[in-house]
Amino acid sequence: VTDTTTTAVHFVPDNLPTHIRHYIGGRFVDSVSGKTFDVLDPVSNRTYATAAAGQQEDIDLAVAAATEAFENGPWPRMKARERSRILGRIADAIEAQDARLAELETFDTGLPITQALGQANRAAENFRFFADLIVAQADDTYKVPGSQINYVNRKPVGVAGLITPWNTPFMLESWKLAPALASGCTVVLKPAEFTPLSASLWAGIFAAAGLPDGVFNLVNGIGEEAGDALVKHPGVPLISFTGETTTGQTIYRNCAANLKGMSMELGGKSPAIVFADADLEAAIDSTLFGVFSLNGERCTAGSRILVERTVYEDFCARYAARARNIVVGDPHDPKTEVGALVHPEHYAKVMSYVEIGKTEGRLLAGGGRPAHLAEGNYVSPTVFADVPPTARIFQEEIFGPVVSITPFDTDAEALALANGVKYGLAAYLWTSNLTRAHTFAQAIEAGMVWLNSHNVRDLRTPFGGVKASGLGHEGGYRSIDFYTDQQAVHITL
Ligand code: NAD
């Protein structure tokens, strides 16, 4: 379907729901209160659906269903192999409908369709990975000869509260759902209110794969209402949260009353450091991808590029020329490289940073709405050079297609610039000097470092940030550790 009432071309998927409901105890339901909120698409900014707005009583019902499934249902008691088979079927089902999933995700979030497809595949891979991991899992056993045996009895923690953001929503939900379910927990998911569409597919995928009713529960709603009620619910012993640092701080405080387990994946302002001895062409390719893929709405975006002064002007000129050629347009068009930002509120925030940037740096590319797109949340890929470390666009997470470039003269200066922000999620280093690469990697304050590369990550590795970018690391067995308690059992021989 092509909607021609807006000036831009706008693809609208077939069979869009007009109303999105919760899923509690194996049934789609509305909020007890009957409250709803509007869901917009980011190209027309018109309401295409309403969604049930979860309140305390909806969270109570979802937690009750998850508790019943945990205490009396088969899921936590199944053999790892049985759970693994169901998780494998979930991965197959995601793959089988990746085109539809990507289409819906693109419509709801504004992500370019080619990139949304990649996210669907990552979501399937998350399930496959944790399905494999639990059958290979070994726990510690210690024997003191002639004296005692000690072993670990690993148990799922209980009802896991999962709270997720609007960027790559389906994939990020899978990053929590897969290990939580693999561990034997039951869950209540509260997806982001800007983008509830793709989350509504989980219920059908899980039911068809044979996940027992009540194991997966979904409550839509506003963060301060449904999210807050989930965080404060005494029947939910742990919260896995991905979102903004300030929201993470609020949740941290609210978890304190019940001393909940927490995993927090928060914001970032990650540096990409380009030394003069780097393969400049590869560094330019990668740093363009780093901040302009996923519309720049990416937690690990390399949004600050630090460039050694001897190649600085050359780098800036080549980078800006490439940025000016990035194709901005309808997210459903396979040629589109940057789509529409998720929501008018977020668009206004990003545009305000573009204006701030004009007073803080030298504008090399972009700087506002693309001339050919009169409507929709479109921002031209925007490049500022000569940005000092005191600038707000250097320090603050923008979460859009906006990048700052800053020169440096020495390794020590580069390190000080790289570490001179409150965040510490990712860092990217471009150099052909192996010693420098590793020395630098070890000194940088970031949870994840990519050397002459980006975006490749084995699912066994730790994922997470330091400083204001997060608390705790997930990935591989770390995720299983988060969703399980390890009871130590001792016996004297
Ligand atoms: P957000 O913090 O506004 O919202 C995230 C989720 O928290 C939403 O579901 C929201 O409804 C809920 N929420 C809001 N207030 C709440 C409250 N008081 N109690 C409970 N829940 C509440 O974040 P966002 O704008 O949706 O996402 C963008 C942010 O997420 C960026 O800062 C980005 O860097 C970060 N992020 C981090 C990672 C990572 O892995 N580190 C990954 C993706 C996104």
From TrEMBL:
Entries under Gene3D superfamilies matching the protein: Aldehyde Dehydrogenase, Chain A, domain 1, Aldehyde Dehydrogenase, Chain A, domain 2
Matches recorded under PROSITE patterns: ALDEHYDE_DEHYDR_CYS, ALDEHYDE_DEHYDR_GLU
Gene Ontology BP annotations: 4-hydroxyphenylacetate catabolic process
One Pfam family per UniProt: Aldedh
Lineage: Bacteria, Bacillati, Actinomycetota, Actinomycetes, Micrococcales
Native organism: Cryobacterium algoritolerans
Alphabetical list of CDD domains matching this protein: ALDH_F8_HMSADH
Record family assignment: Belongs to the aldehyde dehydrogenase family.
NCBIfam families noted in UniProt: HpaE
Transmembrane stretches, start-end: none
Recorded name of the encoding gene: hpaE
One MF term in the entry's GO annotations: 5-carboxymethyl-2-hydroxymuconic-semialdehyde dehydrogenase activity
Family annotation (PANTHER family): 2-AMINOMUCONIC SEMIALDEHYDE DEHYDROGENASE
Tree of life domain: Bacteria
Keywords: NAD, Oxidoreductase
Keyword NAD: yes
InterPro entries: Ald_DH/histidinol_DH (IPR016161), Ald_DH_C (IPR016163), Ald_DH_CS_CYS (IPR016160), Ald_DH_CS_GLU (IPR029510), Ald_DH_N (IPR016162), Aldehyde_DH_dom (IPR015590), DH_HpaE (IPR011985)
Domain Aldehyde dehydrogenase: start-end pairs: 28-489
Protein name: 5-carboxymethyl-2-hydroxymuconate semialdehyde dehydrogenase
Positions of the catalytic residues: E265
Entry keyword annotation includes NAD: yes
